[in-house]
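Wed. Picked up where I left off yesterday with ABC transporter permease. The coffee machine is broken again, so keeping this brief.
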Amino acid sequence: MSEQKIHKGECEGEALVVELESAEPNTVFERPRRIILTLATGFALLILGLFLSLITGIFPISYAEVLEVLFSSNPNPTLVEVVFQIRMPLALDMLLLGGCLAVSGTLLQLRTANQFASPTLTGLMPGAMVGLCVVLLLGMDIDSFGSMALCIAGAVLGGFIVFTLNKIQFIRGRSAGVHLFMIGFIIDVFLRSTFGFIMLLGEYGEYQQEWAISQGGWGIREGSFTFWLALLTILVVVSVFAFPKQLSPLYIPFAIVLTAVTVWACGTIGYIGLIVPYFMRCMIGNRPRLLILGSILWGGGLLMLAKVISAKINEPVGLPVTPVLACIGVPFLIFMVWREWKRFDC
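Structure written out below (tokens, as returned):
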């Protein structure tokens, strides 16, 4: 005999009530099963992205050869060098960068209770980009930590502008999510135009690395940035895991530092900090510990897959990863805006 089932779930920080007609008890996922399925799928996505990263590159390597390198006791020395010294570090860099951006977006959404809060739409990422481009404009002879500090300062400035303007109700009669989206989009365009102008004035010369990184996803900073990025990620993750409620006032400062360091490392990478946290919160709810774990898995796996696709599109040069992510991110963002607009009008 059919009956109505009401399934309540948390998504975007508020309760959603979904009416399911003629539903059998086993057809509705309970929250624990859905959480396990989400995390398991994220782990599978990460493993897939890592494996594809190891076989993708100028030097062709087959699936069997990668398995030989990973599990054989006497692998080909050339293949070992390519896999472990070139491709594995790059894949782990993508894992860290994607995880940092996803965690940053998750912290912003948890703190602001706004599904549009992301490193880009809160001004953190474009602000950090302006800070990095100051190195080019002024020809500053500073080390990596100096340029990192400029990225953090720029992220603070960008976030301050967006959050300050968001308190002013320029757009009345609309939800907080759409309001933040519009303000963030305007400031993002303004700051991107600013660092584009800075790029025209800058003298590259000795600063080729900053120039390549400032183009957004074309390069990754050389040196020991991976160590510092990993250390920072571990500190943030462990802190939130241990004290999720006590450290909630620090979520935005954590997000600022994570975003700034990511921009310092490889330039702007869009959409991951928006779509992954939104999806995680819809599937998991507002559980900081599980959200952080899921964000690392999905963010890292998604960025690795995007890097593989971008490398395949225009071999051997490749493309920046942001245009590839835009193929998913732009439709997803349009859906979010439409859904929020429709919900508020109802």
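Quick read: The first strand starts at residue 5 and ends at 11.
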